[in-house]
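// run 5 | inverse folding | seed 20
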């Protein structure tokens, strides 16, 4: 039979030992969703298309800038379904008319609305 002193020492040792560290749950790994190749192709195919009105306005603006007889820096261009509107100023009636003529000759232009104001010295 073990001695009472040995039993007391055994209990004392058991009381002094460090408790096991608490178990902390690990968070679940994040779920990474991948896009199937078919959806990637569809998304790539649906890339934004250029605005045909903006393209037409840009072509008219380039034509005006290429024309040496028109001060294109003072003229803004807008377009809507083939209808081009010219805005801004010109120094003469002739320059105003030439701007409309150049704009009307650009491919895709159906009509020209000339809102260019003649301002002497502009």
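// decoded
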């Amino acid at each position: 039979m073990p001695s009472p002193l040995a039993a007391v020492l055994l209990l004392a040792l058991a009381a002094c030992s460090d408790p096991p560290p608490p178990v902390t749950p690990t968070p679940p790994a994040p779920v990474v969703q991948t896009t199937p190749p078919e959806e990637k192709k569809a998304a790539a195919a649906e890339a934004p298309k250029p605005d045909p009105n903006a393209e037409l306005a840009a072509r008219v603006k380039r034509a005006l800038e290429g024309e040496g007889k028109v001060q294109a820096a003072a003229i803004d261009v807008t377009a809507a379904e083939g209808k081009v509107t010219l805005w801004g100023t010109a120094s003469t009636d002739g320059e105003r008319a030439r701007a409309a003529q150049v704009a009307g000759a650009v491919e895709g232009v159906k009509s020209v609305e000339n809102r260019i104001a003649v301002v002497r010295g502009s």
